[in-house]
Structures are given as C-alpha cells and as structure tokens.
Design goal:
341 residues; mainly alpha; A middle domain of Talin 1; 12 helices; globular
Length: 341
C-alpha cells in the first residue's frame, strides 16, 4: 500500500509538470515575441534559465542543507556532484533521444512530412561547440589541486556563458521574424486582457514556481523509491535525480516538437547543456572538492563521446534527423546498463 501511494504521487507529479510546462512554453514564446527574439534565443536562453532552476537548486540544497543541519557534508557534496554531472548527461543523451522518437512517431502517424528537423543545422553545431569548450575544461578541473587554478576555470566558464548569451541574442534579433502564437493562457482572465506584458510575466512566474515545487516533490518521491528499492546513492545522484530535474526541459522539447517548432526544441536542450556546463558546474567547482569517482568520470566520457558523434553527423550530413537523435539514446542506455549491472 505504501509503495502504491508513492507510485500514484509520482504519476501525479509527472502530469503536473507536463501541464505546467505547457503553461510555461506558452508564456515564454510570448515573452520572446515581445522582446523580438528568434527561436534560438527563446529556446536556449529564456526557456533554459527558467527550467534550469530545479537542477541548479538540488546541488545547492544538498550542500547547504548538510551544513545547516550538521549532517554528513561529504554525503551532501556527493549528491551535489552527482546531480551536477548527471544533468548534462541526461540532456545530451536521453532528452535528444526522446525528441528523436517523437519526430519518428509523428512521421509514422503522417503528422510530419519528413524525419529531418526544421532548423538551421549550423546553430545546432554552434551550440555543441560551446558546450564542449566549456564542459571539457570544467571536467578536467577535477585533476587540479590549486584553488586559484580552479577559480580561473570558473571565470573562464562565466565568460563562455556570457559570450554565448550575447552572441545568441544578437544573432536572434538580427534574424527575427514575427510568428503566429497561441493565445496567452492567463490572458483569458478578464482583468488581464489589457495588461499583456504583466500577464506574460505573471504566467512565467506562476509556471516557474509550480515547476520548482513539483520538481522538488518529484525528486523527493524518487528518493523514497531509491530507499525502498535500496538503490545505490551514486546511481541516485548520477541517473535518477537528474532524470527528475531535467523533466521540464524534456517536456518543453516534446511540446515544441509536436507543434513543429524543432528549432525551439533542440535549442532548449542544447542551451540547457551549456548552462549546466558553465553556471551549474561553476557552483560545483566553488562549493565542493570537485573530485570525481570512476562512475562520474565514465559518465563525463560518455557525454563527450555522444556530443562528438552527434556533431560529426551534423557536419557530414549538414542536417539533423531523427537517426542522429535516437543514436544519442544508445549512450544513455549503455551507461545505464553498466551502472545497474
């Protein structure tokens, strides 16, 4: 009965996150239109900053919670490290795999004309490059003993993210074209009809608040299951917790793929990986000892291999199709099999 109750709660939180993401994507598209930003900036910056809150909060809570309640600080750091390392892994493997599957299912059901994604492949390739030039130095930082060298890497990561945001917005504004959008959901409330910008901000705020709450509750339920099933803390922090915290990005990307906005879907995932490789990893470098276990190092190698193969397929074929996305899932499931074996 106890197990069933937790199972029902998990399903409820997943459904709540899905509907909240629809609320969020609707508002973020209107905000992007109001700021005259293209889909690349909307997906990789505006959407990411909001949906990255759950996975950024998890390591902070793990570290400061251990200090505040005087529990095992080392255990808190391990949870934080696992969550930080696991997030780019989930986005680069499982999230891209899910989008590929959605594209293929829509093609089979004749809701899409072809399996190639409707986007500028050069933008995707550019995001992969930004991720790699940030992620690899951040990972190699585990071998540094000098704190000042680590601080230099953190500064470098912040600069990389600032350059990425600046160049993306600049290019996005230059290539901006107005698109037809669904009605802002919250504007259906009579007194908000004539306050468009306020209504957009209010809808974003409410959806982000809901995402944080439901994601946190979902993570708690996942942790309960891990205790019941006696799952390794390393597997929990590297695989299960990131799965929960990255759910908003996955759902957003599925929603945008279903509505034919492939550029938004992929930009949201890859923009999330860049945020994780720069801002979130900087938090880890500054607040933990940043020493990796063998499982974490293998996780990082898996991520780098996956992104390199994905980027190579784009360079060769000059497009992004469902096959290159689905192949990312091979890396996810291979690592999962190894961790559970």
């Amino acid at each position: 009965m106890f197990f069933l109750a937790h199972g029902i709660l998990v399903i409820f939180y997943i459904i709540a996150i899905i509907y909240t993401c629809q609320f969020f994507t609707n508002a973020i598209e209107h905000l992007g239109s109001k700021l005259k930003l293209g889909n690349s900036a909307i997906g990789s910056i505006l959407a990411v900053i909001g949906t990255s809150l759950p996975e950024t909060v998890v390591p902070l809570v793990a570290i400061f919670g251990a200090i505040l309640f005087k529990t095992n600080i080392s255990a808190g750091e391990n949870v934080a490290l696992g969550a930080i390392i696991g997030s780019p892994f989930m986005l680069n493997t499982l999230a891209l795999f899910v989008v590929g599957c959605v594209v293929f299912v829509l093609y089979l059901s004749k809701k899409r004309e072809k399996t190639d994604l409707k986007l500028n492949y050069k933008n995707v390739l550019r995001d992969c490059k930004y991720f790699l030039v940030a992620y690899i130095p951040a990972i190699l930082c585990t071998f540094l003993e000098n704190n000042y060298q680590k601080y230099f890497v953190v500064l470098y990561l912040f600069i990389i993210y600032f350059v990425f945001v600046f160049r993306t917005i600049l290019k996005s504004k230059k290539n901006y074209t107005e698109q037809e959008l669904d009605e802002l959901i919250i504007s259906k409330i009579p007194f908000l009809k004539n306050m468009k910008f306020f209504a957009i901000i209010l809808q974003i705020f409410l959806s982000l608040l809901s995402l944080i709450v439901f994601s946190h509750l979902f993570v708690c339920e996942i942790e309960n299951f891990s205790r019941i099933l006696k799952i390794s803390p390393l597997i929990l922090s590297l695989v299960i917790t990131p799965f929960a915290t990255e759910l908003p990005e996955c759902v957003n990307s599925v929603i945008w793929t279903k509505t034919g906005k492939d550029d938004l879907a992929i930009a949201n995932i890859l923009g999330g990986t860049i945020f994780q490789a720069t801002i979130t990893m900087s938090i880890g470098i500054l607040l933990t000892d940043w020493k990796f276990t063998y499982g974490m190092i293998l996780n990082s190698i898996t991520v780098i291999s996956c992104v390199l193969l994905f980027a190579a397929s784009i360079v060769v074929y000059k497009k992004v199709n469902f096959i290159s996305l689905v192949l990312c899932g091979v890396f996810y499931f291979s690592y999962l099999i190894y961790m559970f074996s």
